[in-house]
From TrEMBL:
Keyword Oxidoreductase: yes
InterPro entries, alphabetized: AKR, Aldo/ket_reductase_CS, NAD(P)_OxRdtase_dom_sf, NADP_OxRdtase_dom
The NADP-dependent oxidoreductase domain, residue ranges: 26-262
Family: Belongs to the aldo/keto reductase family.
UniProt name for this protein: Aldo/keto reductase
């Protein structure tokens, strides 16, 4: 399985396991443990998903059963910064650690910029956590170029990640170009558009050509763009399939054809309009 090197030297798997919209419970804990058993080493959750406790149970079960060591995992969570102060952000990190049952996170993100500049104080709290050695890396999510420009003016640590909605219908060229210039790794959430991408004729044609699933075509597209991707599935066979994207490559023409699907279609909120307070 491929990996990338973040701007602080930390290695991160190119394909991880996402748990957005999966409710708390035994099924999720078991799914996380199964994903780790199948080879996933990156697990992505968030405060607002309200499933950190189950994710943590799955991680700890995998460790206890000898499937993996904590040091081999890359665990991400995100702070839901709905008007949080600096101090409240520090408390939110402690809360996530407690729910996960872990001593540290590998990556902690500001989940949304919001429609004001509160994210600067929130990110400064993340800087404090990082400088204290309590998290291995920090970053942001859903930030556009102007958010990043403002953040970099007001803070001292360049985010390692900007996790954004990215797929062939929303390729976000301006954001990706700016992130590349600044050394910020792009990560895709909802890479399969909640499954709707799998019905695209072009993607199905490519799946037939390469004898892969439509999901594998999309995830390979992400990987070839150098974008970290975190598909979600509760099905063990699909967990295996989603990791099997490193034994083939799309041509430059096929990548361009997929890029040409770009029409600005979102399956999530627009960061310019989303007020999460």
């Amino acid at each position: 399985m491929g990996s990338i090197t973040l701007n602080n030297g930390l290695e991160m798997p190119l394909v991880g396991y996402g748990v957005f919209r999966v409710p708390e419970g035994d099924d999720l804990a078991e799914a996380v443990k199964t994903a780790i058993a199948k080879g996933y080493r990156s697990i992505d959750t968030a405060q607002v998903y309200r499933n950190e406790e189950s994710v943590g149970r799955g991680i700890r079960a995998a460790i206890d059963e000898g499937l993996v060591t904590r040091e081999e995992l890359f665990v991400t969570s995100k702070v839901w910064n709905d008007g949080l102060s600096y101090e409240e952000t520090l408390t939110a990190y402690d809360s996530s650690l407690e729910k996960l049952g872990l001593d540290y996170l590998d990556l902690y993100l500001v989940h949304w910029p919001g429609i004001d500049t509160n994210y600067v104080d929130v990110y400064k709290a993340l800087e404090k956590i990082y400088q204290d050695g309590r998290v291995r890396s920090i970053g942001v999510s859903n930030f556009h170029v102007h958010h990043l420009e403002n953040l970099l003016k007001e803070t001292s640590i360049i985010p390692v990640i900007n996790q954004i909605e990215f797929h062939p219908h929303l390729i976000q060229e301006e954001v990706r170009a700016y992130c590349k210039e600044k050394g910020v790794q792009v990560e895709a959430w909802s890479p399969l558009m909640n499954g709707s991408l799998l019905e695209e004729a072009l993607i199905q044609q490519l799946a037939t050509k390469y004898r892969k699933t439509p999901a594998q075509i999309v995830l390979r597209y992400d990987v070839q763009h150098g974008v970290v991707t975190i598909p979600k599935t509760m099905t063990p066979t699909r967990m295996t399939e989603n990791l099997a994207v490193f034994d083939f490559a799309l041509t430059e023409e096929e990548m361009a054809q997929l890029d040409a699907l770009n029409d600005g279609l979102r399956c999530g909120p627009d960061p310019e309009k989303f007020n999460f307070k």
